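Researcher: I'd like a structural prediction for the single chain below. Treat it as a standalone chain; there are no partners to consider.
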Amino acid sequence: MTEEQVVQAGTYNLKYVDILKANGEAVDLREQIDSITIYEDIYSPFITGKLTFRDTFDLPSLLGRAGRDLLRFHITNPIVTNTNNDLKGTFLVYKAGERELVRDRTQMYNLYFISVEALYDINTQISKKFSGSSDEITKKICQTYLSTTKNVIADQSVENLRYVSNFWSPTKNFEFLSQHSRTASGDTSFLFFENRDGFTFRTISE
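Model: Treating it as a single chain, here is the predicted structure.
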C-alpha cells in the first residue's frame, strides 16, 4: 500500500530561491526560508513582497548595495498541477530590514523586493508624442520603456488620444491614460497594475 502524502492548506514547494549578486554569483536561500509574502494590488503598478528567513551564515555581508542584487524564486503548490498557477520570477531587492537575534548565532530578518520593471520606471523619463488608443499606447510603453517580456493585458479603449509625455515616467503615463480612457460601454474605471498573469490595463468591472 502506497503511503499518501498529507498536504495541509498553505503548503508549497520551493523549486529554488536564490539571491543573484551583481557579480553573477547565486546564493541559495531555500533552507533558511521562514516565509514569503507576495503583494498583488490593483492600485499598485508593480508586484512587491517580503521574504523572511533565518540567517545562519551572515548573508548581509554577502549582499551588495540595495538595488543591485536580484531575488529569483519558483514556488509550486503540490495540489495544483497546472504550472500556469506557479509563482515564479526575478525581482529587485530594494531593502534589507533590521536583523533580530532569535537564538545563539541565528538571526531573522526581512528582504523586501519589487518587480525589476520598477527600476526601469524610476530611471526612465519619456519625452515623446503618443497617438492612438490607450490600450495600444500602454502596450508600447510596457515593451519599449519597461523592457518587459511579460504579458500585457489591456481592455480596448474607444478614445483616440494625442498627447505629449513631458519627461514622464512610464507609470505617470499609465496614470494619464487611465484617466482618459473609456470602453465602448462607457466604463472609465481603468487601472494599471501587475499580477502573476503580467501587466494589466483594465476596468474595475472586468
